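pls design
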């Protein structure tokens, strides 16, 4: 039923750009019929029946991959991703950021998958030396270069830039002080770079200051750097909305139920007009990490809904749409 609903939705959304919808629905219905017939055949399925059921399930899984990967939005050659060993995932606790993570001890690489399917080939684009962390990847709008976070030459977290073919690696000249970390950056449409930094020297109050708070900064064309937010708590996961404004997760704390006061905010790239995007005065979602705009839609964003004291920012993938409603789960 879920697959049929997905196929129908793709057909309604993309029309002639998703031409195989009816054939896919017929194949799905045929497999369901074969599956149900085998289940009804015997009260206690024989080994042969179980083997035939497994074969039908295998065909169904292949059909599901074919149907969902035929989404026209996936019509590109390569997918950029991070590959990291499960022993040390390098994902911050929900009240922390990169500066609270170990800098080394990782088995991780920047990779490409091509074609974008389970049969695709995984190729290593960049592997940092010394087991250093690599993450927070932001692909440029023209897909020719990318930003990512990695421990830098001075032993603090820094933002690096690299071309899409793995060449031209460089560390960006941001706030290079011996006790400042810079990371989690994104490109702006005019070529400037927005990033987060621990330069305000603030700590999360409830953990005795050892979780270093990041605020947002901008690197201008002339190399000058300006602070955009002046918040007591973290700014996380900046990204650019279709409107050109910057979306980010902001944690409030003072005089609030702070376990439920991480609110999606947005602002102009110069730091003006900071306001709620979703979730003000709401107990849901507690946190919404890695929010990204959905291509082709003016307001929908997708991200990971998770809790206050969760580890590794794990949770449910949700779509939020403030055009429907902004509080609680109404959007």
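designed seq:
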């Amino acid at each position: 039923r879920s697959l049929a609903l997905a196929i129908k939705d793709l057909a309604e959304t993309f029309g002639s750009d998703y031409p195989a919808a009816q054939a896919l629905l017929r194949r799905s219905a045929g497999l369901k019929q074969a599956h149900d017939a085998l289940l009804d055949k015997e009260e206690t399925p024989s080994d042969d029946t179980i083997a035939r059921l497994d074969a039908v399930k295998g065909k169904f899984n292949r059909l599901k991959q074919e149907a969902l990967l035929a989404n026209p939005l996936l019509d590109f050659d390569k997918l950029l991703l991070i590959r990291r060993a499960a022993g040390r995932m390098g994902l911050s606790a929900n009240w922390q950021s990169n500066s609270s993570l170990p800098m080394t001890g990782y088995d991780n690489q920047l990779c490409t998958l091509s074609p974008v399917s389970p049969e695709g080939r995984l190729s290593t684009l960049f592997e940092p030396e010394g087991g250093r962390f690599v993450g927070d990847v932001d692909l440029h709008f023209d897909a020719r270069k990318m930003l990512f976070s990695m421990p830098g030459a001075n032993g603090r977290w820094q933002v690096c830039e690299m071309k899409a073919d793995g060449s031209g690696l460089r560390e960006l000249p941001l706030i290079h002080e011996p006790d400042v970390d810079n990371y989690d950056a994104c490109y702006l449409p005019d070529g400037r770079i927005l990033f987060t930094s621990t330069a305000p020297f603030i700590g999360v109050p409830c953990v005795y200051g050892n979780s270093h708070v990041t605020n947002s900064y901008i690197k201008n064309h002339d190399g000058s750097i300006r602070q955009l937010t002046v918040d007591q708590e973290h700014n996380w996961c900046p990204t650019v909305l279709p409107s050109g404004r910057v979306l980010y997760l902001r944690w409030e704390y003072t005089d609030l139920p702070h376990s439920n006061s991480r609110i999606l905010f947005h602002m102009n790239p110069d730091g003006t007009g900071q306001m709620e995007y979703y979730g003000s005065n709401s107990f849901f979602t507690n946190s919404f990490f890695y929010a990204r705009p959905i291509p082709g839609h003016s307001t929908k964003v997708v991200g990971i809904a998770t809790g206050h004291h969760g580890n590794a920012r794990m949770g449910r993938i949700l779509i939020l749409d403030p055009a429907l409603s902004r509080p609680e789960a109404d959007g």
